Amino acid sequence: MGIKLRSSIAALILAIAIQGLSIGLISPNIPQSLCQPTLTKQVSLSYPARREVSLFYPAYQQVQLQNTNGAVTVNTHDENTILIEAEIRAFHNGKYVKEDLAAYLDTLIQVEEADKQLIIVSEPDTRPDYLDLEVHYTLLVPRNTHLALKESDGNVYIGKDCGRVLVDGNNTDIHIVSPLGPVEVQTANGRVRIQDAQDETIIETVNGNIYAQMLGGSLQATTGNGSISTHILSTEVGGAELTAMNGGITMVVSANYGATVNATTSTGVITTEIPLDTQDGVQKRREVRGHFGVGTSRLNLSSLNGDITIKRDSQ
C-alpha cells in the first residue's frame, strides 16, 4: 500500500511539472498560425471583367494582386466576371478589443479599378501591433486574363489558360499551368514549376529548384541554390539559357528537336546522351560546344557546382 501511495504521489508531481513546463515554456513559443484564430472572416466579391478578349491589347485585361502572409490560387472560367474569394485568419498576440479587430478586417481588402485593370491590395493600412494575419485568396478570372501578382510568405498556384503572368514572390513556391502568354517569375526562397509554357518564359529564384516544360517561346532560368530540370516538348521552342550556381542542370528535348549547345560547369561533369557534331566545337568533361539535329535553336547551359545532362525524351 505504501509503495502504491508513493507511486501515485510521484506521478502527480510529474504531471504538475509537465503542465507547468507546457504552460510556461512551450505554449508562448507556439507559432500563431498553429493556434485557433481569434476571428475568421470569409469575403466574396464579384466584379465585371475589365478586359477586351484579344491578345493584341494586353493592357486592357489584367488583374493585379498584392498580398502578404497567405496563399493565392487563380483559375479561369468562361464567364465575363472576376470572382474574388478571400479567407482572412486573424491571430491576436496581446490585448485587443474585438469590435476594433472586426472593424479593421472590414477594411482589410481594397479593390480598385484603374487603367481598365482590377487592383487588389491586402492591408492598405498599417496593421495593429497586437495582430498577426493570413489572407488566402482564390480568384476565378476569364480565360486569357493577364495577371500581376506580388506575394510574400505564401505560395501561388495559377491554373491553365491565363494570359501573361508576372509573379514577384518572397518565401513563395510558384506553380503555373499552361499559360497562354509570356511568363516572368522571381522568388527569393521558393521552388518554381511551369507546365506547358507557350511563350517567352523567365524564371529566377535565389534558393529553390526550377522545373519547366516548354511548348513554345524561349526559356531563361536562373537559380542560386537549386537544380534546373527542363523538358522541351516541341520544335517550336526557340532555345534556353539556364544558369545554376549550386546545383545541376538536366535538359530533355523532344525526338525531333535540334539545337546548338554551349555547356560549361566548373566542378561538375557534362553528360550528353545525344550524339553531337563537335567538329567546329569542343567536347570535354566540363565544356561542350556542338550541334545536334536540325534546327537553329541555342541551348546555353552553365553550372558552377553541379553536373549537366542533355538527353532526348524516351517517350
Model description:
By secondary structure, the chain is mainly β. It has 2 domains: 38-189, no CATH class; 191-315, no CATH class. It has 2 helices and 25 strands. It has helices spanning 2-26, 98-106; strands spanning 39-48, 62-68, 72-77, 81-92, 109-114, 117-122, 131-142, 146-152, 156-158, 165-170, 174-177, 183-189, 192-197, 201-207, 210-214, 217-225, 228-232, 237-246, 249-253, 259-265, 270-272, 277-283, 287-292, 297-303, 308-312. The strands form 2 sheets. The chain has a 13-stranded mixed β-sheet, with no helix packed on it. A 12-stranded mixed β-sheet has the order 1-4-7-3-9-11-13-15-17-19-25-21, covered by helices on one side. Strand 5 and strand 6 (117-122) form a beta hairpin. The model is unreliable at 25-30 and 45-60 (pLDDT under 50).
